[in-house]
Amino acid sequence: MVSKDFQLQLKGYGLTTVEILYHMPDHPKLLQQFIWQEYDLAPLFPGLKKFLDFWQRELEGALHSVRVAHANLIKPAEWKLVDGLFRLN
Q1: Domain membership of residue 55 as a residue range
Q2: For a designed S-S bond to 8, which of 13, 69, 79, 83 qualifies (C-beta 3.0 to 4.6 A apart)?
Q3: Is residue 10 assigned to a domain?
Q4: Element (H or E) spanning 6, and its range?
């Protein structure tokens, strides 16, 4: 059986890692860090947008900043022309 994550990668999803800094509800001058990691579609990031909408609607900590890193783990193969023949004995 093929894993759900692998199926998402075949559909073009890449691993998205997000660093969220937010103000602590009880101490607004202090920042707390939260890391979110899921498979998502770049450049629109619908999963991340859904998560941030949930955050702003349901959680008390006001967002300070959001940093996004994204990588497609399955990529087209890279081909290079080899000019020669090499033998290993």
Answers
A1: 4-71
A2: 13
A3: yes
A4: helix 4-10
Decide: helix, strand or coil at residue 84: coil
Query: 70: which strand partners?
Result: 16
50 occurs within a structural domain: yes
pTM: 0.78
Regarding beta strands 31-40 and 63-71, do their DSSP bridges make them parallel or antiparallel, or are they unpaired? unpaired
Residue 14 lies in a domain: yes
Angle at the Cα of 14 from the Cα atoms of 10 and 20, rounded to 5 degrees: 155
Query: Do the domain assignments include residue 76?
Result: no
Sign, Cα dihedral of 4, 78, 47, 36: positive
